[in-house]
Design brief:
alpha/beta; Metallo-beta-lactamase, Chain A; 6-stranded mixed β-sheet; globular
Length: about 230
């Protein structure tokens, strides 16, 4: 598995692109750089940087996995969909409503910041994901893991590559649920402290993997279990 990332302008959201290692079935004439990939989150104005990086790598995105529906993680969708027609959008079912009108799902203080960025918003078509049934996109196995607390529909995305080894075999995208040394806040609309406690207990039971959060640096789950005061 190969992962690259860009940082979106609004609140420094990490926007990722993930591609599987070329499979053994690749033919001798196939270009190993010409691969499909999936995206994780769509921060405001991330499309130009992502499009440039993906063009350099020769990757074509087929889906974007949204960790939750807060505006800083979804406002890049219109330009992403313009740049990559047919891009599939997936989000945890309880957060699907947040795609309808991003500014209306946050506090008045945040709405004042978000509204000018939203512009003439048209809700994108999106697939509502519920449950934990794994599925395959771009040669990757993707397991959604509902993680309410920061929002109702926050979702951990466990992404694995059948051809990857070591840290390239599986990673955990945590959005705003778990950060290096901290966790997401629960005092915003849709947040739930008790639900977050249950989610964190679940995270503590998962196998050690690299953790790629929605903000800040990458970490490892084992490191967070040792050092994160919230786990």
């Amino acid at each position: 598995m190969e992962i690259t990332a860009v940082r979106a302008e609004l609140l420094d959201v990490n926007c990722y692109a993930v591609a599987a290692e070329p499979g053994a079935e690749a033919g001798p004439g196939d270009d190993p750089a010409d691969r499909e990939c999936v995206l994780v989150d769509a921060g405001f104005d991330c499309a130009p940087d992502l499009a440039r990086v993906l063009a350099e790598l020769g990757w074509t995105p087929v889906a974007v996995l949204l960790t939750h529906g807060h505006p800083d993680h979804i406002l890049g969708l219109p330009r992403l969909l313009e740049a990559f027609p047919g891009l599939e959008v997936l989000i945890g079912e309880p957060d699907l409503y947040r795609l309808q009108d991003p500014a209306s799902t946050v506090s008045a203080q945040l709405a004042h910041i978000v509204a000018p960025l939203v512009g003439e918003w048209t809700a994108p078509q999106a697939a509502a994901v519920s449950g934990t049934e794994p599925f395959t996109r771009a040669g990757l196995t993707i397991a959604p893991d509902p993680a309410p607390g920061h929002t109702e529909g926050s979702t951990l995305w466990r992404v694995s590559d059948p051809h990857g080894e070591g840290d390239a075999a599986e990673v955990l995208f945590t959005g705003d649920v778990l950060f290096a040394g901290s966790i997401g806040r629960t005092d915003l609309a849709g947040g739930d402290g008790q639900a977050m406690e249950r989610t964190l207990a679940h995270i503590a039971s998962l196998p050690d993997t690299p953790v790629l959060p929605g903000h800040g640096p990458a970490t490892r789950l084992a490191h967070e279990l040792r050092t994160n005061p919230f786990l």
